[in-house]
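ingest -> validate -> predict -> emit
validate: passed (alphabet ok, no gaps, 358 aa)
predict: started
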Amino acid sequence: MERAVHLSGNNDKPHSEPFEMGHNMNASLTSNLFFTPERFDSMLPIRSDLEHVERIISRELVSKHKEFTDILHHVSQYKGKRLRPALLLACAHASGLVNESHWVLGAAVELIHTASLVHDDVLDSAHMRRHLPAVHTLWGTKSAVLLGDCLFTNAFQMTSNLENNRACKVIGRSAHRICEGELLQSFHSGDMNMTEATYYDIIDGKTAEMISASCELGAAYAGASEPVIDSMASFGRNLGMAFQIADDILDLVGHENLTGKSLGTDLDQKKLTLPIIWLLQHGPESDKNKFKTLLGNGLPVQRAQVKNILSESGAIDYAKNKAEQFIASGKRDLQALAPSAYRSILHDITDQILNRSC
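emit:
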C-alpha cells in the first residue's frame, strides 16, 4: 500500500485525492455514545488537533492501486471513539508542548487499533463492526488479514519518519503485546479453569498496552519528565484494563443496535471473560452447572440465559467493581499533572469508561 504523503517532507510523488475521513469532526465525535453530547464541549481544547489527526488518517488510506479503493473506503468508515488519539493529545497538552509529531502519532495509534479490529473480526467470526459489515464478510478472510497487516506496517512506517526512535520502540513493543495477548487468549479458549490473573494478562496485552502507549507517547513527545511519562503510561494502562472489562461486560449484556458490532462472540468462541471466570470460581454450584451446560452443548450460546445467570449470581457486579478499581488507580495517576483543562479532559474520559453503552 503506497502512502500518499511522505511525512519526512519528501513529498515528491503525485497522489490522488484522499478519502475525507475528517471532513466533519463534530459529527465524528458526537455520533458515538462514548463522547455524549453533554461531554462534547469538554473535548473542544483538543478538537483542532483531532482534525489534524483525521486528515493524516485520510491521506494514509489512499493507494495507487485502484483495486484497493473500495476496501480502503470501507475501513475509513470505521470511525469509532478515537479514544487513543484523544488520550495521546490530551496527555501531550497536559504535560508539555504539542507539535506535529503528536498528530502523526495520533494517526498511527488509530491505524494500529483499526488493524487490530479487522483482525479481531476474523478471529471472532464477527459480522458487524461499528454498524457496518466486517471487512472479511465482504472481501474474505485473506483480504481482511492482509489489509490489517497493511495498516500495521503503514503505522510503523509513519513513526519511523519522526526525529527520534522512541515511538518506534514503543509502537513495536505494543504491537508485540497485542499479538501476545490475542495468542494467549486463543490458547485458553474453553479453559474452564482459567484464572483471573491470566485474564488480566490477556487484556493487558490486547487492549491496555496500546492505550498505555498512546498516553506515554503523548507525554514523551511533549517533553515531559520521565516520572510524568511513567505516570501517564500507568494511567493509560489502568484506563485500558477498565475499558476492556467494560467491553467484556457489554459483550454479555449489551445491545447490538447500540454497540454497532456483533455481541456474544466471546461466548461463541468460548473465550472466558471476568464475569464468567468469577462465576466458575465463586458462583453458586447451580449457576456454574447451568453455564457449563450452555457452553458445552455445541450450540450457539443463548445470551439471554447467560445474562440472567451472570446478573443474578453477582458476577456482573463483581466485574464492574474491578473496573472501578482500575479507574480509581488511573485517577490517582493523573495527580502527577498540574491542574488544567487538559487534565480535566483525561478525568472526563476516565469517568465515561464505565458509563457507556458502546
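Strands lie at 128-129, 132-133.
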